[in-house]
Amino acid sequence: MNLLFTHAGTFPLAYDERLLDALLRTGHAVDYQCREGWCGSCRTRLLQGTVHYPHKPLAHLNAGEILPCCCQAASPIVRLDCERDHRLGTNDLTKTSHSSDGCPR
Ligand code: FES
Question: What is the DSSP letter of 105?
């Protein structure tokens, strides 16, 4: 299982999950528009790891930047320069806690 690291924590990535989908699923603040690699609005700094683009994006990228809308993790760990969207509150959207009877809540 590949892991996504951000300034907000560590999150497991689903198989073949696009990084933008993972960031949004886990409540991160990330801009996006086209979701297809041509507008560049989702540009994010890659701090560690490598990514794979199933289709070559058209948007310009500077060194160290990726387009999370159209790439997937290509290494066990991908670390991105992203923060949690604080408008969503303090609830952790990914960690599953369990009650004393073992059921997820
Ligand atoms: S949302 Fe347009 S390039 Fe990622």
Answer: -
**How far away, in angstroms, is 45 Cα from ligand 1 center?**
14
CB 41 near ligand 1, within 6 Å: yes
Per-residue pLDDT reduced to its tens digit, 92-103: 554 433 334 333
pLDDT band at 23 (very low <50, low <70, confident <90, very high): very high
Taken as a whole, the chain contains a residue count of 105
Residues near 40 by beta carbon (within 8 Å), at least 6 away in sequence? 59, 60, 61, 67
- pLDDT tens per residue across span 43-92: 999 999 999 999 999 999 999 999 999 999 999 999 999 998 887 765 55
Is the minimum distance from the CB of 32 to ligand 1 under 6 angstroms? yes
For the chain, which domains are there?
Answer: 3-83 (3.10.20.30)
Kindly tell me the sign of the dihedral angle through the C-alpha atoms of 57, 58, 62, 68.
Answer: negative
